[in-house]
Amino acid sequence: MTSGELSAVATALRRCSPPCNFLIFGLTHETLLWRALNSGGRTVFLDENEYLISKFEQNFTDFEGYDVQYTTKVGKSAELIEHSRIHRKGDCRPVQNLLFSECKLAINDLPNHLYEISWDVILIDGPRGYSAKMPGRMAAIFSAAVMGRSRGGERKSGKRKGTEIFVHDYGREVERVFSEEFLCKENLVEVRDSLAHFVVKEMKGESFEFCLGESSNSS
Question: Which domain, by its residues, includes 53?
Answer without folding.
Answer: 3-18+28-200
